[in-house]
Specification:
FERM_domain, alpha+beta, actin-binding, 38% helix, actin binding
Length: 814
């Protein structure tokens, strides 16, 4: 054991024991002071060696050697060597590993995608190039691993599946070796394990020899274990009931562990993958034991020795008083702002030194007065915006917050400090060097309501990845009210709304899945979230965090419409859940989607006259629209001439007189009186589904490149491609499939489209008086090379009806 590089601090008792065993291995059962002194530097780290006189260490080791059982029994040196190696193996399992270089191809977010996998007797550990831990998994937390040799473009790969439902696809030239090694450990541990969990309930009233158990019971194998190697039965004791009996192996899951598994592992084994993810996040919120509450609060003192800058010289008055001297430590609370950052790394860069200001944190906590009144969001922006961009500043923020929480006797300040730390832990994790210190800081302050929640949030953000934007005002306002669970209103096209739980680390994809599940939709695919601000509707990227995307949109709007005198202005917005892609929509297949979304999103486009529709079709559709709106109320039939625009497309209003429309629509409505409202919606959708323009996004433009086409045309974008439509007749002039579109370019009042080869292809030039916002053509509809070039489109400015008609194709923000 090279004690100059001890991975962790050892107690004096452990060091003396190591020294005594080392002397026994070197010199046997007879030693004297001179021999011990020769090997002291091989046994004791320099820092701890200097803490006592050498004579004291010699005396302690000589005494321990003389009294040790191995000396008394004169054990072989080899046996004592094995004892020493066992001690090291338990203290530093990482040193007893096989190491493999891998690249993460897919899976939960990690700080690095290229790292080292260490496999040892405890489990698997992911390490970066400086041997900092990225992730640790014990064998009970691993449910399987398999190799995939078919991914030729990325080499061999193996997929590691965890108990929390996570799947890490790792590529490496050693993937087969990694998989075989993990399988060897799992199978070996299962053969030697004495622990299993019941997979379902078993009642054995007829045969007392068969053990009864409930799902999730922990079963402990007896010494004889297998009754017969080929029988498939074993003997076990139910820990819950204390009874012993025979158990059929197919009814239990043997846990790959030689020690009793934790209650968390047992409960996770009984859950679905989704439930496991939720439970693993909430596991850190268990109630603390009384003994834990008595633990002395951990500070950053130890961390500061290596990572903090040298403190400024103390004044004479501070140096005299012990109480003042403690308060002047860099890692403890201070009433004066720091003149420079805490961390050495942040001090070396002049730009970072200016960004790492201490005063915003003190202002948020109420420790420092502010000359001007700033909102809480303005202060959190000052704290976090730079840290999100510069990773070096992240540890600086963590350290400054924990500093202000250490030895702070102001209850108001402490409460605000924990609220700030709660926001911080949801944005980004501390570095690996600070992580264990930050975790200890929180775990030893369990009396604080937010301490364990902050610890849990660090684990969550390490798994899911750091945020890209500072906290949204909704998050800041929530935690200021000590509310850690945030609900957000989601609107639907049928003018209904519901609230959904949205966490700091909830991604839009997950929220969409939750909404679809609650609404009982057959699938969430094709749906997305949109933010409506004034007359603009902006699609949210499903891979983004919900609050990141929301913050990006509201900040963009605030920059374009600043308040008076440059003051920050609150942005009113609504979040809508709507269908974005109409790729596989068949009316009647998903009744909930038809009723809540499809009908209400297609109706406005139909009424604007974008589709080619005959008078007879318009009459039938108007009858269905009336049915949806008024159901069985025939008294409103008399008002049809007044509400004709809400029943008939714009371009057909003058095809016949109002009275004739009324007569025809009344007759059509009578045919549908027996239908329910939802049946009328589906009938409407089935009629327009036959049209080639169903599910399109429409834009009115002026084209200047095709002399054979009218100057003003409609553009329709749907799963077939981009169609040019005659504005008056609604005839489709031409269709450009997506695989023929090689390039897009756009400006504030125009966009250009290249068809065919980039060099010799034809260009479609379009102008519009509407504002143009860039977005992406759906990735599903373009070749890979086209995705890089694609950008569109012009947004219609129809205010109140915009939500129902505008479709943002794909995952980029306007």
């Amino acid at each position: 054991i090279n004690t100059f590089f001890f991975p962790l601090q050892l107690s004096e008792e452990d060091l003396v024991e190591i020294g005594a065993k080392y002397c026994y291995i070197q010199f046997g059962d007879s030693i004297h002071n001179e021999l011990v002194q020769k090997v002291l530097h091989d046994c004791i780290p320099v820092k701890q060696l200097k803490s006592k006189p050498l004579e004291k260490w010699v005396s302690l080791i000589t005494y321990a050697h003389a009294k040790a059982p191995y000396t008394q029994d004169r054990l072989s040196r080899q046996t004592v060597k094995e004892q020493l190696v066992d001690f090291a193996r338990f203290q530093w399992p990482l040193l007893f590993s096989r190491f493999f270089e891998v690249t993460k191809f897919s899976g939960p977010s990690l700080p690095k995608n290229h790292f080292i996998v260490a496999v040892n007797w405890k489990g698997i550990c992911f390490l970066d190039e400086s041997e900092k831990r990225l992730l640790e998994l014990t064998f009970p937390e691993i449910t399987g691993i398999h190799t995939n040799r078919a991914v030729k473009s990325f080499g061999q790969s193996c997929t590691l599946i965890t108990l929390r439902g996570e799947e890490f696809v790792l590529t490496s030239v050693n993937s087969v070796v990694i998989a075989e090694l993990v399988v060897m450990f799992l199978e070996g541990l299962k053969k030697r394990s004495r622990f299993a969990v019941a997979m379902h309930e078993k009642k054995s009233q007829e045969d007392p020899a068969i053990l009864s158990f409930k799902k999730g019971d922990l079963l402990i194998f007896t010494e004889d274990k297998r009754l017969d190697a080929n029988s498939g039965w074993t003997c076990a004791q139910n820990e819950r009931t204390g009874k012993t009996g025979n158990v059929f192996l197919e009814e239990i899951y043997t846990i790959p562990s030689l020690t009793k598994p934790s209650s968390q592992v047992l409960s996770l084994l009984m859950m679905s993958p989704d439930q496991r993810r939720t439970a693993s996040q909430n596991s850190y919120m268990d109630e603390p034991d009384e003994e834990d509450l008595k633990v002395k609060p951990y500070t950053l003192e130890e961390f500061s020795y290596e990572h903090f800058r040298t403190p400024e010289k103390e004044s004479i008055s501070k140096a005299v008083l012990q109480k003042s001297r403690g308060r002047s430590q860099l890692w403890a609370h201070s009433k004066e702002p720091l003149k420079q950052p805490l961390l050495k790394r942040a001090c070396t860069d002049p730009d970072l030194r200016d960004l790492a200001s201490h005063s915003p944190i003190m202002k948020f906590m109420g420790d420092y007065p502010s000359k001007q009144t700033h909102s809480s969001v303005e202060i959190t922006d000052q704290i976090f915006v730079a840290a999100i961009q510069e990773e070096v500043l992240r540890d600086e923020i963590y350290c400054q917050i924990m500093k202000q929480l250490t030895e702070n006797r102001n209850r108001y300040s402490v409460t605000k400090g924990w609220q700030l730390l709660w926001l911080c832990t949801g944005l980004f994790p501390p570095s690996k060097s600070l992580l264990k210190h930050a975790q200890k800081f929180m775990e030893t302050r369990q009396k604080e309501t937010l301490a364990l929640e902050c610890s849990r949030r660090i684990q969550t953000v390490m798994r899911s990845g750091s945020r890209k934007w500072a906290p949204h005002p909704v998050e800041v306002e929530a935690i200021l009210q000590n509310n850690t669970k945030i609900s957000h209103k989601i609107c639907f096209p049928n003018e209904t709304e519901q609230t959904f739980d949205v966490g700091t680390n909830t991604k839009i994809r997950i929220l969409c899945q939750n909404i679809a599940s609650k609404l009982q939709l057959s699938s969430w695919e094709g749906f997305s979230l949109f933010v409506k601000i004034a007359d603009k509707v902006i699609s949210q990227n499903e891979a983004d965090y919900f609050f990141d995307s929301l913050r990006q949109v509201t900040d963009w709007n605030r920059r374009n419409k600043p308040g008076k005198d440059g003051a920050a202005m609150s942005v009113a917005y609504e979040v809508y859940f709507m269908r974005k892609l109409w790729l596989n929509v068949t009316p009647g297949k998903d009744l909930k989607a038809d009723s809540i979304f499809h009908y209400h999103q297609e109706l406005p486009k139909y009424l604007r006259g974008y589709h080619k529709c005959s008078k007879d079709e318009a009459v039938q559709l108007a009858g269905l629209i009336y049915k949806v709106r008024f159901n069985n109320d025939r008294t409103q039939l008399a008002t049809i001439p007044k509400i004709l625009k809400e029943l008939v497309p714009d371009n057909l209003l003058r095809a016949i007189s109002s009275d004739e429309w009324k007569k025809s629509i009344t007759a059509a409505y009578s045919k549908h009186e027996g239908k329910t409202v939802d049946e009328a919606k589906i009938a409407f959708l089935k009629m327009i589904h036959r049209w080639p323009t169903f599910g399109s996004a429409f834009f009115e433009v002026k084209q200047t490149s095709e002399p054979n086409f009218p100057e003003i045309v409609l553009i329709a974008i749907n799963k077939q491609g981009v169609s040019l439509i005659h504005q008056k007749t609604k005839d489709i002039l031409t269709v450009y499939p997506f695989n023929k579109i090689s390039n897009w370019s756009s400006g504030s009042t125009y966009f250009h489209m290249t068809i065919g080869n980039l060099v010799r292809g034809s260009r479609i030039l379009c102008e519009t008086s509407l504002n143009c916002y860039k977005t992406m053509v759906p990735k599903q509809m373009l070749k890979p090379v086209q995705v890089q070039k694609a950008s569109l489109l012009c947004q219609e400015n129809h205010s109140s009806e915009l939500v129902q008609c505008y479709i943002m194709p794909s995952d980029a923000m306007t």
